[in-house]
Amino acid sequence: MEPIRYVDALNEYYGAMGNPPYRWTVNESAPLYRPEKPLSECRVSLLTSGGVSQCAMPAFNPDARNDHRLDAIARDAAADDFQIHDSYYDHSDADADVNCVFPLERIREMAERGEIGSLSDHFWSGFMGRIYNRSKVLEDSGPAFARALEDERVDILVAAPS
Amino acid sequence: MGLVCRLLEERGIATTYVATGRDLTALVKPPRALFVNHPMGNNFGRPGDVATQTAILRMALGLIHSAEEGGVLVDYPTDWDEPFEFLPGGNRSAASAG
Predict the structure, then answer these.
(1) Is B36 in contact with B56 (CB distance < 8 Å)?
(2) What is the pLDDT of residues B35-93, one digit of tens each?
(3) Backbone angles phi, psi at B19, to 5 degrees
(4) Does position A78 have pLDDT exceeding 90, yes or no?
(5) Is A94 in CB contact (< 8 Å) with chain B?
(6) Nearest CA in chain A to B10
(7) Complex ipTM, two decimals?
(8) In A23-119, which ranges are E strands?
(9) Number of folded domains in chain B?
(10) Which residue from A53, A123, A49 is spatially nearest to B4, judged by alpha carbons?
(11) Size of interface A-B (CB pairs under 8 A)
(12) What is the pLDDT of residues A38-52, one digit of tens each?
């Protein structure tokens, strides 16, 4: 089937609520950094923006705007110890199996098989949708996340938005 | 989140982005993206489908070294096996229950 046209759907939805037109970020090019090491020697981390938190932590605000919260989750966290709060998408499948949006068990298996070199100490959940103050991402929360990854000597991040 | 990936890449951390929104991804242009034509919230497939979850993750990681320029957007070859729609601001199951 044809890919869903989210831009049109979201413009219509938020426009009907009386919001001013959303200024979509449009980039014509993108940076690229290629690690010189093979995957089997790289340290890999994982990020979800799907409102996923561990059960002992507070829930994410499902209707958040401009929520820059970022949780660090131990890489050996139990896959059945998560809750999801996000009104933006249907997470009923991810409620049943968090790997649908945050494949922490699958990435652990890849590390055990030696397909990737190692895992970071933490995986990450944050940067939920509907962040309108993009300059804060670029100047504050984004660089802070970069430093956290650098501290854990991460070579590669797998990012899964939802 | 695509912005975050771009920022990380500029600082020497390679990223790969597993997206269910093709048009959204094409606008933001993260350094590497795998488009998976699944409902939002099923980036890696269905609950318990270990083989598909692994295959998508493995293909996304494969882009790390195969990408030759920033902004590459690759389509995962297998679509969702039934029609789906997006209900902005609503939950698919909640909407159908109501």
Answers:
(1) yes
(2) 999 999 999 999 999 999 999 999 999 999 999 999 999 999 998 999 998 877 655 44
(3) -115, 145
(4) yes
(5) yes
(6) A31
(7) 0.95
(8) 43-48, 52-54, 70-74, 82-84, 118-119
(9) 1
(10) A49
(11) 224
(12) 999 999 999 999 999
Residue B84 lies in a domain: no
Bridge pairing between strands A43-48 and A122-126: parallel
CB-closest option in B11, B90, B94 to A146: B11
Q: Taking CB atoms and an 8 Å limit, are B58 and A30 in contact across chains? A: no
Q: In this complex, is the C-beta atom of B73 within 8 Å of any C-beta atom belonging to chain A? A: no
Domain contains B86? no
Range of the domain at B14: 2-77
Q: How far is CA A131 from CA A22, A118, A125, B54, in A?
A: 11, 31, 15, 30
Q: Is B94 within a domain?
A: no
Q: Measured in whole angstroms, how far is the alpha carbon of residue A155 from the centre of its chain? A: 16
CB-CB under 8 Å, A31 with B17: no
Those residues whose C-beta lies under 8 Å from the C-beta of residue B22, and which sit 6 or more positions away, are A3, B35, B37, B73, B75
**CA A36 centroid distance within chain:** 25
